[in-house]
Amino acid sequence: MPSLDLLLSRFSTDALAEPAPQGAVLDTILSTAMRAPDHGRLRPWRYVIVQGDARPALARRIVASMKRLDPDVAPAKIEKRQTRFSTMPMIIVLGMHLRPGDKIPLIEQELAVGAAAMNILNALHATGFGGVWVSGDVAYDPELAAELGFPAPHGLAGFLFVGTPRPGARGPTRRAVDDYVAEWTGTPVRFGADDA
Ligand SMILES: Cc1cc2nc3c(=O)[nH]c(=O)nc-3n(C[C@H](O)[C@H](O)[C@H](O)COP(=O)(O)O)c2cc1C
């Protein structure tokens, strides 16, 4: 598929079946992270692959985190998260190896992690796989991050659910970009997207 068509057709989905990418294909997909823009060459992105029996174990940690963050969390919410984390074909934990004292601002380190994750989502699509980036409060729970290998100041940027899109899976409809673009000619710009 020509590359622009690829970029213009990618969508997120959690309607995912087996298989998830493995071996050399997975390596290639993850290698696209190394092409992300990265001020200072800090390479702050880290990937933790969770599959097979590790999934329910991760789900238990997620549930523990949910209860820690909100002791009154609704049982239905717990059940939904537990099922998703236990059954997605693969989960890639998006880790962030952060250096708060570095001359490169933290936000730029986090943006690089996001750019690398985007490359991975595009590479999944390019290879016939798919996924979705999810977070929730648990993604920012320092205790969960530490349990996964990212003690403070490091942390998580979320999770990628990864697999093969089920037939008919598709993302939200897209708007034209015009309302999100402006040309600056000396006065502050306005965007159609922001008009009430
Ligand atoms: C940092 C980040 C966190 C996200 N967390 C969630 C989430 O917890 N739940 C969710 O449904 N979508 C979440 N999303 C949005 C989806 O990943 C996805 O972008 C959205 O469903 C729109 O689909 P699209 O990528 O096809 O436009 C998140 C996106 C980002 C960038």
TrEMBL record:
It is an enzyme of class 1 (oxidoreductase). Its EC number is 1.-.-.-. This is Putative NAD(P)H nitroreductase. Belongs to the nitroreductase family. It comes from Komagataeibacter rhaeticus. FMN binds at residues 10-12, 35, 39, 133-135. Binds 1 FMN per subunit. Keywords: Flavoprotein, FMN, NAD, NADP, Oxidoreductase. It holds the Pfam family Nitroreductase. Its cofactor is FMN. SUPFAM superfamilies: FMN-dependent nitroreductase-like (SSF55469). It comes from the Bacteria. One of its GO terms (molecular function) is oxidoreductase activity.
